[in-house]
Amino acid sequence: MNRIIIKLGAALSIFAALSFSVKKDTVDVAAHSAKLHQSIISMDTHTDTVMEMYRGKDVSKLQVNLDKMRKGGMDAVFFAAYVGQGRRDDSTLLAKTEYAKAMISNFKDYAQKHSDEIGIAYTASDVRKLKKAGKLIGIMAIENGYALGKDISNVQMFYDMGVRYITLSHNNNNDICDAAVTQDNPKRGFRKGPEWHGLSPFGVKVVEEMNRLGIIIDISHTSAETVQDCLEHSKAPIIASHSCCAAIKNHARNLTDQQIKDIAAAGGLIQVTTYHGFMADSEAKADIKCYCDHVEHVRDLVGVEHVGFGSDFDGGGGFNGCNDASEIQNITMELIRRGWSDRDIKLFWGENVLRVMGEVERVARNLR
Ligand SMILES: [Zn+2]
Hints:
The protein is of the alpha/beta class. It has one domain (about 40-365): TIM Barrel (Alpha-Beta Barrel). The chain is about 50% helix and about 10% strand. It is built from 13 helices and nine strands. Strands 1, 2, 3, 4, 5, 6, 7, 8 and 9 form a nine-stranded parallel β-sheet that branches. Helix 6 (about 155-160) links the parallel strand 4 (about 135-145) and strand 5. Helix 1 crosses helix 12 (about 330-335), helix 7 (about 200-215) packs across helix 13 and helix 11 crosses helix 12 (about 330-335). The protein is globular, with a radius of gyration of 22 Å. Bound molecules: zinc ion. Zinc ion binds near residues 143, 242, 312 and 315.
């Protein structure tokens, strides 16, 4: 009996020591992460938050809001005005352009009302200045070039409103290019399969105008042929603002290893997204480890200089362990546990995006 108690006692003390060391590891890693996020710039290249705000959803319930950004140490968010693909007749196109303008104006008014907390950035150096001033940062974007209609002057109009990337398509083809995911739906004017085999002639002009003004070309949602055409026509690096790796989860929205190599060779970025359907076969398998596996797959293929974070929060993104902007440090902690250096974590969270923003600005200066 006594011996059993002694054995049990020894077992318990080993267990206690083990759980203490696990706790200590967690405390150390959490402290390391918190300290790191004070100095680095963390950026999220894709959210649909402005759409939800425009629809009047309670801001406190959104996956991205000022409180959650502060809590998570998320400094700068690209706020994309999402325009769902629809019919392509002239009056619908004009209405969609107005809808995108209204979403952007609504968010800029909100930022103005909270200007003591958040500022809008138009350049990479604005992002750094706002971080130094202790402010949160918003950068405007558009998800779906459908918002441009067929009018090339809308590229400049949206640039003047602050838009710094445009995702060329959403699901289904538009007047700019073919999409990765298409369906037959005559009522909405959709046809499955390629329409342009990449960029349309108007799409080529849009890419050139985006280069001239300094708007990043985003190929998330576009077809493989569109990605190839963008790489051929763009003079500046291009990005996938919210995509995962097809080598881990085979999905039309994810990027093949060859696409990842081609985008990186042109100086661009693969911003790994948090939507479970692009991460894994089941929602249960989409966890922090799975997310970091996608990140490390890109890193191992093309280097840490070409990977980052694009959540798709408030648009379907988020998984158990990283469900809103306040939980992003669970990713940092996992990367620390995997042996990532502070330098590499800093590149992943923001410096890569700032490099590409700077490069796109430089190309625009040279073209104007
Ligand atoms: Zn999307």
